[in-house]
Every structure is written in structure tokens, then in C-alpha cells.
């Protein structure tokens, strides 16, 4: 009998596709809420394989403590030798876009110019260093949190001084070079177990940063870049497994410990491909998966059958 799969989760809305995949493969599983709990440090965790499904946007659902709790929980599991899918190392990137950008650079992957600022004065000084349009985003983000498009530092100053301004759960704001797409879409590449599953296109004609998960709803607070109109914005990309950028993504996942990841890039007007986001708690768009002939969560369940606890 296969070892029990322990799913560490925060958002129950994302569970059904994974549960369906586990049950289809006949895997025993337990679901564990990780927005609350206790860690008995010297005790042995339950045997089995652990799947980390914690989201960096958990604070938007009233679970502000979840990310930090998960950091300690993963450390405890790994101390006792438990196999964790997307464990401590990839999770440290999942909750920090700064670390994501540094990882991209380590692996020779082009990314937009990015600065992080803490404090309003520092934020404005950083904005003054951009010659063209830039976007802001929360360092600990997810689902488009904190993303806004600005054409000047003066425009940002008006926002920072308004009641709408939100510096995110840690007060860490990124300013990032805005890459105008060559065509109105971004591409998300799904990697699992060191192999390419498929890539999807997200229509950017009405926005730039989009969440492909069936259950994901982008916040209306960022209409410049993240419209939440519910339209069908996702389609299968013609990008193939033998693309050199896909090979770099796979090397990044192997090098940084990601069992699975959705990695996003945008092609600029001059044909350069800029990668700007790594999603460790990746969710799959069922409609695009059907076009590709791939059930992402079923593939994840099959991957779990190959792991040893």
C-alpha cells in the first residue's frame, strides 16, 4: 500500500481537483489545515509524504499567521526526515519575489529590473530611478496582490498618499520595470517532476498579471493590471518542451528544489522573454488542461506514487 499523502493546505477552494486526482490514483490521503495548529518538536510526524499547498496570499483570507506557521512546520517535518513536496527551500522562494528574482538570475534567466523598498520615502526614491513605466507588487504576493501600473513617480506618490495604498503583509513593496508585451498575452509554463506539462497563454489585453486557477479570483483593487471580469482569458500556448527557456526552467526547478511550479514570462516588443514570477503552489486551469490532454492534479498524484517517504 502506498504511504499516506498528507496535504498541507490553507485554501479549501483549491482542494477538489487535487483530491480527485489522489482518489483516481487510489492514494490514501489526509487533509491538514495549516492556518492553526501545534508542533510538538521532539515528536515524530506521522509517516507518509507531505504536499505543501500553502499560499502566500493566505492573509487575504484571514489567515495571516499561516505562512510563518508553515515555515516552522516544514522545518519540523524535514528535521524528522519526512519527504515534503515543495518543501522549505522552494517555499522560501514562493513567499518572496525578491528571492524568486535572485533565483532566476542564478540560472541565467532574464527578468525585469526590480527593486524592493520598505518605507514610503524609500519607495519614492526607488521610483525616481525608473525612466519609463513600472509596476508595484507585494514581495509576498499571489493572485495579483499589490500590482498597479504607474507611468511616473508622481503618479505613485498620489497613490502612496491615498487611503488605497497597501504595502502588503510585510511592508515590502517591489518596483519592477513594466514590460509591454509584444502581443497581448503572457505565458505560464507548468513544470512537474522535472518535466514540461504544458504552457498556457493569459490574455493581457485588459491587464497584465492573471491567475489561471479555476478557483482564483483577482482583486478589483488593481484594475490597471488585474481586471477581475471573469472572462475566459486562458488558452493553450504553442510553446513546446524543447524550447530552450523550458530547459532553463526545468534546471531552475531541479536546482531550487521545486517538485512543481508554474513559471510566467512575457515577450517584449523587441522579442526578449522576461520571466517575472514562480508559482510553487501552482493550480491548473482545467479548460486549458483539457486542450493539452493533461489533467495537472492527476499528473501530480501520479508523481506522488513514485516518491518514497
Name given to the CATH architecture of the largest domain = 2-Layer Sandwich
Q: Report the major sheet.
A: 5 strands, antiparallel
Radius of gyration based on Cα positions? 19 Å
Q: Kindly report the spatial arrangement of strands forming the biggest sheet.
A: 11-10-9-12-13
Low-confidence stretches: 208-231
Share in β-strands: 15-25%
Question: Portion of residues in helices?
Answer: 25-40%
Q: Total number of β-strand segments?
A: 13
- Supply the helix-strand structural class: alpha+beta
CATH topology heading of the largest domain: D-amino Acid Aminotransferase, Chain A, domain 1
CATH class of the largest domain, anyone? Alpha Beta
Spatial gap, N to C terminus: 13 Å
Can you count the helices? 9
Number of folding domains?
Answer: 3
Looking at how many chains there are and whether they match, the oligomeric state comes to single chain
Report mean pLDDT, rounded to a whole number.
90
3D shape = globular
What string gives the helices and strands in order? Answer: EHEEHEHHEHEEHEEEEHEEHH
What is the CATH homology-level superfamily of the largest domain?
A: ATP-grasp fold, B domain
Amino acid at each position: 500500500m502506498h504511504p499516506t499523502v498528507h496535504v498541507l493546505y490553507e485554501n479549501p477552494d483549491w482542494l477538489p481537483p487535487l483530491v480527485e486526482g489522489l482518489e483516481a490514483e487510489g492514494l490514501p490521503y489526509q487533509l491538514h489545515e495549516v492556518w492553526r495548529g501545534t508542533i510538538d518538536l521532539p515528536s515524530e510526524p506521522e509517516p507518509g509524504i507531505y504536499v505543501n499547498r500553502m499560499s502566500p496570499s493566505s492573509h487575504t483570507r484571514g489567515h495571516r499567521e499561516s505562512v510563518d506557521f508553515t515555515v516552522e512546520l516544514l522545518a519540523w517535518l524535514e528535521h524528522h526526515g519526512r519527504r515534503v513536496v515543495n518543501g522549505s527551500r522552494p517555499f522560501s522562494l514562493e513567499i518572496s519575489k525578491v528571492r524568486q528574482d535572485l533565483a532566476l538570475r542564478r540560472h541565467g534567466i532574464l527578468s525585469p529590473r526590480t527593486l524592493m523598498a520598505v518605507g514610503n520615502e524609500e519607495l519614492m526614491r526607488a521610483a525616481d530611478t525608473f525612466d519609463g513605466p513600472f509596476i508595484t507588487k507585494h514581495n509576498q504576493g499571489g493572485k495579483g496582490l499589490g500590482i498597479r501600473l504607474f507611468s511616473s513617480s508622481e503618479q505613485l506618490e498620489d497613490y502612496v498618499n491615498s487611503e488605497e495604498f497597501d504595502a502588503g503583509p510585510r511592508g515590502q513593496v517591489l518596483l519592477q520595470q513594466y514590460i509591454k508585451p509584444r502581443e497581448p498575452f503572457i505565458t505560464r509554463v507548468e513544470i512537474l517532476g522535472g518535466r514540461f506539462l504544458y504552457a498556457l497563454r493569459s490574455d493581457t489585453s485588459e491587464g497584465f498579471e492573471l491567475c489561471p486557477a479555476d478557483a482564483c479570483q483577482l482583486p478589483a483593487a488593481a484594475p490597471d493590471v488585474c481586471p477581475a471580469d471573469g472572462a475566459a482569458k486562458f488558452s493553450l500556448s504553442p510553446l513546446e518542451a524543447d524550447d530552450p527557456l523550458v530547459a532553463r526552467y526545468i534546471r531552475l526547478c531541479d536546482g531550487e528544489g521545486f517538485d512543481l511550479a508554474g513559471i510566467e514570462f512575457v515577450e517584449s516588443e523587441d522579442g526578449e522573454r522576461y520571466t517575472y514570477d514562480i508559482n510553487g503552489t501552482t493550480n491548473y486551469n482545467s479548460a486549458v488542461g483539457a486542450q493539452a490532454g493533461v489533467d495537472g492534479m492527476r499528473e501530480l498524484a501520479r508523481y506522488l506514487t513514485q516518491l518514497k517517504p
